[in-house]
Write a structure and sequence with these properties.
By secondary structure, the protein is mainly alpha-helical. The chain has 16 helices and four strands. Helix 6 runs antiparallel to helix 11, helix 11 packs antiparallel against helix 13 and helix 14 runs antiparallel to helix 16.
Length: 418
């Protein structure tokens, strides 16, 4: 029996290693496949996105990003493998146990060490990405001070929110055993709905300044549109995205009386007023077609499934033994489960991306029907051009990674609808 148990743990250890390596290989091969098509001719419909000089620049940018991606993902996979081979999780577990015998405190210290450690090791990469690559292509607006403060605020939020939820779930595990999963599910779901409603009020101000869109011709045009489609919208905000990057964006958040549209100041800079209204019409489309509610429900359902699956395995001492930890615990089970779950989350990610792309078409169609397809096309082209985006992504790459259809696909869909 003892032998069989060891054998299971050893097999599981190799499966965990295998999953880490397979995950890396899959992503790298897909990146390479996509990169092979960087120099493909630009589709005729999109030749007006770049002039010659900008096209050159976009080619360099995506190649540099590709190489950097290889380097940073290679670094983290090597680090993960070394950590597994040299029993790093067991070592951190020993350290955490020196401070307390309370399972919740041990778990918090354990994840604290892992998260801060990996953050320290990966910070040089995000530094390089922001201050060397983005800087070189004229995208970066982040100051050193903003970069450091963002890091600290991010860590603090992880500690409070992540630590709080983890502590609660382990406490549920202590009092309810395997049934912890649906207690945890209720808490996480309530939290998700709450965050969806109040994200803009509670979290965004920690990182950005947002102001109501001032009255003027843009606001008048937006209000004329929302009135026409019968969309009650009191909250139109402008956010100082230019504090970090020149890249533009717009998004929808909340629902009911809390619903709001947030426009980046960079978007207002880059686009004409009609184009901004077209982007906003696309966002209204997401709301009207109930995509916001669907996404929320889908993420709650996925969370429930994940927690349920976790409840089946987390108590098994084989998980701990696979990571060379003798005392089974929730946090070690969670780490092993987290790695083993990644192929499943790859699949759920595929499904969610597929649905998301369908939704993007629907939102585009909505904007086209209720406002103007031409303005949306020109805004999408401008935004793609300004971010030096890849106009020749590979089909498989789109299928796996893209939450939005490619520019060409959106163009063709919008043209077909006119
Ligand atoms: Zn969209």
């Amino acid at each position: 029996m003892f032998k069989l148990y060891n054998l299971q743990a050893e097999t599981l250890y190799y499966i965990i290693l295998g999953v880490v390596i397979a995950d890396f290989l899959f992503d790298t091969l897909l990146d390479a496949l996509n990169a092979k098509h960087f120099d493909d001719p630009i589709p005729a419909e999109l030749t007006d996105v770049y002039d010659d000089e900008k096209y050159e620049k976009s080619q360099e940018y995506k190649k540099e990003r590709f190489k950097f991606g290889l380097l940073s993902s290679g670094f983290s996979v090597i680090l993960t493998i070394l950590f597994l081979v040299f029993e790093g999780f067991a070592a951190v577990d020993v350290i955490a146990r020196e401070f307390s015998s309370n399972p919740i405190v041990i778990a918090l210290i354990f994840f604290g060490i892992i998260i801060i450690g990996s953050d320290l090791l990966t910070t040089p990469f995000s530094w390089y990405s922001t201050f060397i690559i983005e800087e070189k292509y004229g995208f970066n607006k982040t100051s050193t001070k903003t970069f450091v403060i963002d890091k600290l605020k991010g860590l603090l939020m992880t500690m409070i929110v992540g630590g709080g939820i983890l502590a609660l779930i382990i406490w549920f595990y202590q009092i309810a055993g395997e049934d912890f999963w649906w207690y945890g599910w209720i808490v996480v779901s309530v939290f998700a709905v709450f965050m969806n409603m109040f994200y803009a009020k509670l979290i965004v101000p920690l990182f950005n300044k947002q102001t109501a869109l001032e009255s003027g011709s843009l606001r008048t045009k937006i209000e004329a549109y929302t009135q026409k489609v019968g969309f009650q919208l009191d909250n139109i905000f402008v956010i100082d995205g230019s504090k970090r990057s020149t890249k533009a964006n717009a998004y929808f958040s909340g629902f009911g009386s809390e619903k709001r549209i947030t426009l980046y100041d960079t978007l207002i800079n880059d686009l004409d007023e009609e184009e901004i209204v077209a982007v906003l019409a696309h966002e209204v489309g997401h709301y009207k077609k109930r995509h916001i509610v669907f996404n929320l429900i889908a993420s709650i359902a996925t969370t429930g499934f994940t927690l349920w699956l976790l409840s089946l395995f987390v108590g098994s001492p084989v998980l701990s033994s696979a990571l060379s930890v003798s005392d089974p615990s929730f946090h070690i089970g969670l780490i092993a489960f987290g790695i083993l779950y990644s192929p499943i989350s790859e699949v759920t990610g595929l499904v969610m991306n597929y649905i998301s792309r369908k939704f993007e078409y629907q939102a585009d169609d909505y904007a086209s029907k209720t406002y103007n397809a031409q303005y949306l096309i020109s805004s999408l082209k401008k935004l793609s051009g300004n971010t030096l985006s890849n106009l020749t992504p590979h089909k498989t790459y789109i299928f796996v990674h893209y939450s939005h259809p490619s520019l060409l696909q959106r163009f063709q869909n919008l043209k077909a609808g006119i």
